[in-house]
Input
Amino acid sequence: MLKGSIILLICICIVPCASAARLKAGVAKKNITIEEPDFMIHDSLFVRAIVFENGDHKKAVIIAIDAISLTGSGTGARYVPADYIDQVRITVEKELNIYGDNILFNASHNHNCRNQISKNVVAITVGAVKDAYNNMVAVKIGSGSGYDDRISMNRRLILKDGGEWSIRHSNPCPPDEEVAATGPFDPEIGILRVDRLNGKPLAVLYNFGCHTYADPYGAEPPYGGTTADFPGVASSLIEENLGNGAIALFLQGAGGDITTMRYKDVNQPRDAEPFGYMLGLSTLKALKDINPVNTDELSVIAEQISLPLRKDIPSRIDSLKKQESALLSSLRGTSLNFKTFIPLYIKYNLFPEYPSYYKHLYLHEEKAGVHGLKGLDAENRRNIEKYLRNVLAMEKLCRIQDNLNLLRSRQQEIEREGSETISVEIQGMRIGEYILVSFPGEVFAKIGLDLKEKSPYKYTFVAGYSNGYIDYLPTAEGFNGWAYEDTNCILAPEWHETYEQKALEIISRL
Output
């Protein structure tokens, strides 16, 4: 009898303890589009928040926002206010007792905000976190990954001369004959599935690295209208298909050198919807193979690290000025202008053997011992070649001017810092087997791929554009490419090794 009583007592004690140890989560979504828009709104901008709490009362928050970055002028226009992160963290810590460093902010890097983010975005964000916190329920979670290689590609072109060139609208692409290869890209979608205990979905976190600057097809010119871009389309698609009030949070990844496919297509409008449908459907497909389980695993580590500021900008500017001078010296006069060049170029490429007239007149001149047409062709070809060389030099000069302006601007930033290093926040977050490690800038795809490979956890993902913003972060090797990202950077190449070591150390401690 005594033995049976002891067993009963043990069972009574175990059940409530196991229940208390279960992970809880709550989600919320709020519109952050400006109250009185002065631009066409194709689809609204949102902030989405998810709050986690485990049995030890550890809490973590992830905030995903449809903004270009997490810095700004303070007016709330295209950017969030400059003190956005600090203000949200201070308020949430004060009102909900959630440690500020346990909040991860991630911007989708949406280029199409069109100055239409609400000036009240701080209060709206805090409201989303409060709603999520106040509606937490017990959950099961599962980690997994999807795959889609139709959306993105590396925008850095590796040239045969060893240099690199970025695919951007601000400069032309190099001639095909100069291109040797493209850089790596990452088609993996890092997914965290969060279900209620009854199996109904509560939230989906999905991480994917790619610049977001498509436009909504068919919207009013000149820019296509305010939109959350393809991540907004994907999140809406996921939410509609899951139902039950589920919320999908897009987390921008290591997309610093990644662009959408056919970014410079001049034959059809750029359209965010197909990319969004691809990403959303690929995420939904992968969700089916993820089986959520009970877990109490929740941890966050946030640390400030010092990264070296670059010192090579003056020498790089000198090098570019020399290249500029050499290109200017290479320009040669030609009798052609754009009006005469275009028809000649077309004609001499369509009919290279007999461009000036039918073959029979060339044959007649040959019999007559004259060379009028052949002489004209030779002169025209010389002028075409000179004109083309001038055009190619002009294209390179455009890129040099872009790089010079960027380098001068970055040098001013470095001088304002007044030191040799800059402090940034690196945050690691573990939710079950799902690992996120952040960086406040546009890290290259290879950096994310390397961290995934070296991490001891299968489901490790980089959240770039998180908890701040300090522009582009090429790999150490990438600095030698002379591409856009290499010049639009304030850090020295050594930053790469320092960050990777710290990121892996934080991951190992989660």
